[in-house]
Amino acid sequence: MTSPNQIHNLEELFLHTLEDIYFAENAIVKALPTMAQKATNGELKHGFETHLKETKDHVSRLDRIFKSLGKPAKGTTCPAIEGIIEEADELADIRDGQVKDAALASIAQAVEHYEISRYGTLIAFARRLGHDDLVQPLEETLSEEKATDAKLTKLSESSILKKSA
Ligand code: FE
Ligand code: FE
Fold it and tell me: What would the DSSP string read from start to end of 54-75?
């Protein structure tokens, strides 16, 4: 984690937040294949695979953002996402397949909500700092995170929760 005495202004806080989400997106790229492998519901498995591709695009978009700021693309440890992924690792060992799917879907939504909050903040900071060119790529990622969250809600309600009781 960046130490607080390295952050003196909103520009530095913006950069720190970019490094935080860069770490998180890379951690999600590593975690999603296991989540896809552990899911028993076909649609959930497919959803994780699709979001893995999108998440790789999120990393590339951040690479371009760092580049346009003239900063090295690097992550700063984000204990929040590490904690959520740790929960996924634990719950992926639930024996009952349907209950495990419900757990994996709920953890995935926690991940999406984390990302949604970060990108919302980054967009507000970018606007305030006059980085108008960065707003659109950040919004593209934000809308993919929101769509994934909505898909997970729909899948849980229409299928996963009906099979788990
Ligand atoms: Fe993402
Ligand atoms: Fe995501």
Answer: HHHHHHHHHHHHHHHHT-----
Tally of CB atoms within 10 A around 139: 15
Q: What is the pLDDT of residues 73-108, one digit of tens each?
A: 999 999 999 999 999 999 999 999 999 999 999 999
**Number of structural domains the chain divides into:** 1
CA–CA distance, 72 with 13 (Å, rounded to integer): 15
| CATH number of the domain bearing residue 121 | 1.20.1260.10
Centre of ligand 2 to C-alpha 52, Å, is 8
Domain residues for 92?
4-164
Each residue of 13-29: pLDDT tens digit?
Answer: 999 999 999 999 999 99
Please give the distance, rounded to the nearest whole angstrom, from the Cα atom of residue 157 to the centre of ligand 1: 23
What does the chain come to in residues?
A: 165
Q: Taking Cα atoms as reference points, which of 62, 111, 56 lies closest to residue 88?
A: 111
Residues with CB under 5 A from ligand 2 (ion): 115, 145
